[in-house]
Amino acid sequence: MTKKHHHKGGCHCGNIHFIFDTDIAVPKIIHRCCTCRFCRKQGARYTSDPKGILNVTISEKDNINCYRFGHKTADFIFCKTCGTMPLITSEIDGNTYAVLNVNCLNNNGQLQDGDQKFSYDAEKTEDRLARRKKRWIGKIVFH
Ligand SMILES: [Zn+2]
Fold it and tell me: Per residue of the chain (143 residues), what is the pLDDT tens digit?
């Protein structure tokens, strides 16, 4: 089904490029800050749409780094050239789920102020995966 919006974004140098198909306009996009030590250091803010579709193009596949820590159930995908982290993916029951870093949207200047803060530190692994299945973008196409 065609979505109303096709938000473009990616890393700074263009190695990682994405198109986020969603019915949510950029000013209505909710951005969540995770309060874990990594996310606070990184300054990343995330969004997702369980009904959205994410197309990801990686030009130089050797030039990305997938960082894992903690529960090791998510890949924080960095571009090795420019150092930005446009998305996180998680493999759950054979499907890939993702959240975007809203800072990597090309139209990030249209985002509203006000981050929602969440702490997931106390969450058990199975609860974490169940939450991602419900809330993260469930249709990811890699090119
Ligand atoms: Zn880059």
Answer: 689 999 999 999 999 999 999 999 999 999 999 988 999 999 999 999 999 999 999 999 999 999 999 889 999 999 999 999 999 999 999 999 999 999 999 999 999 999 999 888 889 999 999 999 999 999 999 99
Q: pTM of the prediction? A: 0.94
d(CA 38, CA 50): 24
Q: Which residues lie below 8 Å from residue 125, measured CB to CB, with a gap of 6+? A: 71, 73
Rounded to the nearest angstrom, the distance between the alpha carbon of 1 and the centre of ligand 1 is 30
Query: Terminus-to-terminus CA distance in the chain, angstroms?
Result: 20
CA of 58 to the centre of ligand 1 (A): 10
Residues around ion ligand 1, judged by CB within 5 A, are 11, 13, 15, 79, 81-82
Distance in angstroms (rounded) separating the CA atoms of residues 116 and 113: 10
Residue 129 CA to ligand 1 center (angstroms) comes to: 28
List of domains in the chain: 5-142 (2.170.150.70)
